[in-house]
Amino acid sequence: MLVSAKEMTAAARAGHYAIGAFNLNNLEWTKAVLKAAQEEQAPVIVQCSEGAGKYMSGYKTVVDMVNDVMDNMHITVPVALHLDHGTYEGCLACIDAGFSSIMFDGSHFDIEENIAKTKELVALAHSKGMSIEAEVGGIGGEEDGVVSQGECADPEECAKIASLGIDFLACGIGNIHGKYPANWAGLRFDVLEAIKDKVGDMPLVLHGGSGIPTEMIQEAIKLGVSKVNVNTECQIAFAEATRKYIEAGKDLQGKGFDPRKLLAPGSDAIVATVKEKRSSAPTARHDALTASHCICRARTGICRTNTEMKRVCRQDIPSCYFRPYMTGQSAIIVFRKLFIPLFQAYHNLPG
Ligand code: 13P
Question: What are the chain's domains?
Fold first, then answer.
């Protein structure tokens, strides 16, 4: 069953990690992203732009496809289906079609109109149990072959939109969609910090997540980014793997022209890209949504797997060593009852 993205992004914000939000383009993308999320035991946001929705013959098709793939692939991690950069009308259509989350991109309106429309859609989305993302300050990118530098959102405007009850906020901090130009100036952490100071615990969204250096994504997550959007990297990986297959003449061997064979390397490349993207930044395993793991992650910063959690906890917080296997409460009880008395006995300390 699809879930709202509210809880997963709020847990990510509290735990200092981020949820990967991957754009869907067709059936192969859907299967590949869900497969990667399930194998990694990670909550995931699958999202669809209005253009991709049209390409896939409508939002209802997208909803049915994602639901059916989840059923047939026995997907058990939390999955939210989100509209990416929706217009007002697109949001209404996705609410009707059965999405579990929407983004209203009113960044091209003046702030008053953005506020009015966002407010209306917040009420509507929440009445259906859906989450909603809003945007302030456009995200740059390639248009008609011209690549614009990313814009920066006004922190005061971010505060106004954040106060409307939205669940997560996209704000321009110099990021752009598509490939980054060689002379890209990088993310504006000063702007991100100023926004964070104004919006408090509101989870922030980093659009244009493809091609941003890992350290920059990690820094952005430390400053409140809790959802990282990725599309172009999966598209490039898919295209490269498909090109290799054809250039090697494999479509000419046997039944290599069968789309189930022809599209397999590209699909595998998407799975690998989603996993690689996740492992390069603090992200969540499904079980990270439990409080104990979030606390552990909050303190250690970058746990991704149980093995890594153990390693990091062992190094930095010895008392946390057993936490991955327990609820927060039982870990504290065991620590108090077992380790503290042992420590006291060893050092002959008074009880
Ligand atoms: P990229 O295509 O640059 O990864 O951006 C994805 C995105 O932000 C979707 O909104």
Answer: 6-285 (3.20.20.70), 299-346 (no CATH)
